[in-house]
Amino acid sequence: MIKTMQTTEYLAEIIKELNQTTGLIVDHEAEKLVDSIINSKKIFLAGAGRSGFMAKSFTMRMMHMGLDAYVVGETVTPNLKEEDLLIIASGSGETKSLVSMVQKAKDIGATVASVTIFPESTIGKASDIIVKLPGSPKDKEQSQYKTIQPMASLFEQTLLLFFDAIILRYMEKKELSSSKMFTRHANLE
């Protein structure tokens, strides 16, 4: 029999799951990503589905900090060059469109970073920087992490919070404040 809960009880359970997964992220992997962001001329982000939404929110925050950050596929996205960074957000590391993107970036000579559940995936193996995020893939039978949530929700939520933590670490290293970020916030809304 499936245990029923109130909405706030589900929320409390989700937060417990996130507390467990965030403690499993390796600091030196995250630091490599922060340093690569600092040292890159432009930063490009890509992901599919909900992972793509998390990548877009990360791109927005980088723009607020004054970085040249772009979402792959948008009409205002410039071309990728050798001194640039491509960050791929992919739980499986096998999404065909993202695999093609990684190969193109490697051919150009850009740095590729992946944030994934599976470092041994096609995207992970091709990446210069890999950050393994714990989480449950869409196929929960392949997961060592137990979650009450559907599909890859745990990965996607961890991804959003991880990207926010990267922003905070970048701000610390560059001695930036939130007040400076507000000067770049949209003002035509």
TrEMBL record:
<comment type="similarity">
    <text>Belongs to the SIS family. PHI subfamily.</text>
</comment>
<dbReference type="InterPro" id="IPR001347">
    <property type="entry name" value="SIS_dom"/>
</dbReference>
<protein>
    <submittedName>
        <fullName>6-phospho-3-hexuloisomerase</fullName>
    </submittedName>
</protein>
<feature type="domain" description="SIS">
    <location>
        <begin position="33"/>
        <end position="176"/>
    </location>
</feature>
<dbReference type="InterPro" id="IPR046348">
    <property type="entry name" value="SIS_dom_sf"/>
</dbReference>
<dbReference type="Pfam" id="PF01380">
    <property type="entry name" value="SIS"/>
</dbReference>
<dbReference type="InterPro" id="IPR017552">
    <property type="entry name" value="PHI/rmpB"/>
</dbReference>
